[in-house]
Amino acid sequence: MNEDRDSHDRSGAVTRRVFLAGAGAAAVALGLGPMGAAPAGAAPAGAAGGPGPRGFARAFADPAREVQAKFRWWWPHGMVDVAELRREIDAIADAGFGGVEIADVHHSVGEEIDPERFGWGTPAWVAALETALKAANRRGVVVDVTIGPSWPAAVPSVTPDDAGAVKELAHGVTVVQGGRTYSGPVPRAVAEAAEGVNRQELFAVQAARVSADSSPDARRPRLVEDSVVDVATDGETVTWTAPEDGTWLLISYWLRGSGQRPERGPHTTPVSYVVDHFSREGTSAVVDFWEKHILTPSIRRLLRASGGAMFEDSIEMETEATLWTPGLPEEFEARLGYSLRPYLPVVVTYDEDPVFEFDSGVSSRVRDDVNELLSQLYLDNHLRPLQEWLHGLGMKLRIQPYGLQTDAVAKAAVVDIAEGETLGFKNLDDFRSLAGGRDMGGKTILSSEAAAVYGGSYSVTWKRAARTISREYAAGVNQAVLHGFSYADAPGAQWPGFAAFTPYDGGVGYSESWGPRQPTWRHAGDVAGYLARTQLVLQTGVARCDVAFLRQKGYAGSGFGAAWFSATGVTHGWTHEFLSPRLLELPSATVSGGRLAPGGPGFKLLVFEGDAFSGRANTMPLSAARKLLEFAKAGLPILVVGPWTEPSVPGVPLPGENDELAEVFRRLLAQPSVHRVDDRPQIPDGIAALGLRPDVRYAEPSPLLHARRLDGKTGLYYFVNSSDNEDVDHDVWLPRTSPAAVPHVLDAWTGEVRKLAVYASDGDEIRVRITLRPGESTMVVVAHPSWLPGAGGPGRHVVATEAAETFWSDRELRVRDTRAGTYSVTLSNGGRRQVDLPDVPAARTLSAWTLRMSDWRPGGSATRTEEVLHERELSELLPWSRIPGLEDASGVGRYRTTVELPKAWTGGHGAYLDLGAVTDTARVWVNGKATEPVNLFRPVVDVGGYLRTGRNVIEVEVAGTLINRMRVTQPDVYGGVARQDCGLLGPVRLVPYGEARLRP
User: Fold this and answer.
1) How far apart are CA 251 and CA 548, in angstroms?
2) For the whole prediction, is pTM greater than 0.90?
3) Given this model, what pLDDT does residue 50 score?
């Protein structure tokens, strides 16, 4: 291929290959093979590649800080107390969370905080940051910091008129009838300049004829494309005579600062203004402020020791006019190969809506090219220099790379840590979009701003949070940054303390303020352990995925899914991620053995259709089409959806470009590894024609979702039941990573790792049974037997069993069931064994309980809680809201019952304690001894080792949310929220089981 042609598509315009050149260098350094070394900031220490086989069980049982979940830590500016900062760091660390993101957020503060004394970046705020860093480093808690006050990125050192501030292009318009002359002031901008904007510059004046089938009064007048002309002006006045034909518009364009401020200010004195994210001047303004006002020698040392990240929120640029950056027209022509000036009328917007349309149908294509350029400028002028600066500080960059119509997928391939969000993302495919960029870019972490719920303050349960995050894990997320942990107090705060997002504009606002103010905090360590163990597995090795779904635009947060795969394919075991055309230019984008990016995600199928964001138009960048042809020739299976008889490039085509694209597609569709189907319903037929099946296969369609990672010869699998009400219980076939590989099961709630006793192998596959309740997850590791030495007997396993459980214990096989009987077991060597479990007693329902309720109420200050004790004798289990006198109670309930057990129960038998329904968190004690943590989705605890003949005391501690008390404490805010059913709801059953050794 001609070198000039390879690097230029549009008459010298820079292509996507150059656009991601920096990312490509990072990917080369990373090495996409298993156990590849990562560049600075790419992964937590000890995560990528895992802790090593012999140390895995220890690491899993006691996860390191680096893999523990984090909190957004919301501060009311710098109005914080040194001792309280230390207490909160200790509380977070003691609960098993590994990091905080310090965010200057005061949305719900009831009284004004002096920004000059305590605002972001002030000496008080900087001193608080130093205190927090010292306290966190002492406990090994990683500290991230937000890039500025609130969002978007802003600093108090720029004014809207400065070069570093975000800019807009505002339009004015006046109507001129054909043959008439306009002489007067240049049309004033329709959108008024924001407060603080003192200077605006006339960028251009143009005239355009209104199409005969339109009107200047139309919501979006149609203009004749080839009628656009530049009009001379002295900068203040203009005199222009319209041609005789038709009605004309005289359009002015004013360049000025947008005056946008970060949300919910003021945060500083002077006021902070949002910086230009598309120019070096904007990024320099951020860096310069940090260097001059925040990064003291001590803080530099502390940040480097912490190894955290700087966080930047999604790109939420807001202006009534057109988002702009100086130099955009010059960059546009240099990179895209044609002048933007004749197209200015269809580029300008008002209140985020295009003002004009051309009669030629080219308008949307020009806008696509503008968005293409903004993506490039954001990467070149903001993300890369910012990340380079942070690496010099020993920090990473974590961003939410979506917002505007820019290529978030490509940005996820470049940034150290990409992040999505529970609240703003519409479905799991939004996370899969960022996962595609992460995996093709060779990064490790995909973060989530996790578990935020509108209207959920003080009512979100840990079960709901864990269920939400567990689903996101299946879509590529492997780091949860929970939303969030509020600092204890602030001016005007009411009990139970300052909460960053509630009350919010008089309403409930956004959840959740986790921490000691919540009754469930006493059990938070159990949830933290579950999250950390899962994240350890999902940060080990490299992600593997079946399908690369190629989109023409790399948007995230759109809610758009992958045709067939999102709704149907996932129920059969298919996994998919999204790519944008830019990712095809990365060094990782090679094909070997029929797989794309074989050392990384290893896609076995690439699928594309028409542009879902443009009416499924058959568009494709020419450079991307050439790469697809290259992949097909190398043997990558490609499924094409739609006709593709007249493909076109996105944006405005240059002469001959579409003809060349058509020829590339003709050759592409002729390749033996390429199959085309007419439309989405035929996708399964296309897959069958290509002879493909998912790497992980399900015995039946189900709500089971999974994520797969590969660490050398070790395969790691995460499974979650995504349903709210449907069980999963069926076989799953897993790829065998080596001929001797065997499966192991990992319990994220208890930290237990053990070899599976029951499975079947067939050549290069292993079949295991996955049984999960709604929301429940499990993990399986397929590895050489030496991966977990001493965990099971050598040379044999069970392939079929009639018993409920067959497992390894002390290198011997044992059988367990809750029903008496004789059970048949088939071994892998073909042998059959019979096991007798006689005289298993009947289960008992435990209905009579003594409840001691610690009812949390407002104390003597906003942060003090009074606990009022209630005691009730219960003959049946009811939620607290239905127990007389406890209707509005919130807090912690301690349930106690006694049960007399005959020797038949304890002699050779064990028992499960099935709690039935419970809200929210629970812990169990039997005869004064604490049992293993309670799985929120399967609240069944093995108490066999704790029971004794005679009297047994069983205690269950349940912690609920605060909403029932908040309803009556602040009825003006929370009174409209329904009461929540918290407590031990049951039925609680003591279910005995029989167990016996399986003879050799």
Assistant:
1) 45
2) yes
3) 59
